[in-house]
Design goal:
tt1808, chain A, 25% strand, globular, alpha+beta, 11 strands, five-stranded antiparallel β-sheet
Amino acid sequence: MTSTITQALTKEEFLKLPETKPAREYINGDIVQKPMPKGKHSRLQLRLCNSINQIAEPPQIAYAFPELRCSFGMRSIVPDIAVFLWSRIPFDADGEVPNDFLLLPDWIIEILSPEQSSNRVIDKILYCLQNGAKLGWLIDPADRSILVFRPELQPLLLRGSDRPSVLEDINLELTVAQIFAWLKMTSN
């Protein structure tokens, strides 16, 4: 179960605390422990990151980071997958990826765990969209569905042969069924 710890800490004080596994998030003054990822979650997370990066990294369009802390506004969150457009990745002076991302992702992907509150996860996605993110996905392995969020539009609940939208210029052609088929690790 996800636990909330109420401490009188600022976001800056929170960021000075040591990291934990699973990660903790800072949401409007509350510290929330994420659930430990399990098999289905890990499999979907890895395959999605790899699929996005295989297409978007070579032409330097975008990059998908798993479990990357993103601190902005009144929050410090750790999305299951944070996708950044290449032009927004804050490379350091050596051209390397920095440790600290003090900005929100362009595309936030969350994979619902059985013990997570869907409303709490949706709140995280909506906060990102309200602050400038372009896209959000909530993947529900139990329901075999993906809820797609875009700024100022109704969410779309997708299943089966539906194709969830992706960031512009990322030529990722996946159906919801193809994404969930990754859970079967047999060769065909």
